[in-house]
Amino acid sequence: VLRRLAARAHLAGIVGVNVGANKDSSDRIADYVKLIETFAPVASYFTVNVSSPNTPGLRNLQQSAALDELLAACDAARDKTPLFLKIAPDLDRAGVEGAIRAAMDNRIDALIVSNMRS
Q1: Quick one: residue 107, left, alpha or beta (phi over 0 = left, psi -120 to 50 = alpha)?
Q2: Mean pLDDT per 10-residue interval, the chain, length 118 residues
Q3: Any catalytic annotation for residue 52?
């Protein structure tokens, strides 16, 4: 993917890179950071995805302390690239408020608050 994005870098347009963790990762935060560092040269913005229902345990990163730690690491890795946070659409009010607080505390540029359901 990186090679393909680099090959089209001369073209106009916005490239959003959705980053997440591998399901069997021993250090999920390191996965996000590595992806941000790797794709920084070709990304217009990054989406930190903690909402995927297909990755077991990923939504645990939406809990307050874990989310704050993740976003702080992603913020440090991003340089000047805008950073969006994608949260699950079924968070309760306290979860949404915690995510907003963590996003504001860690200079997140935007929230994505919905997944397409079929």
Answers
A1: left
A2: 94 94 89 96 94 74 86 95 92 89 94 72
A3: yes
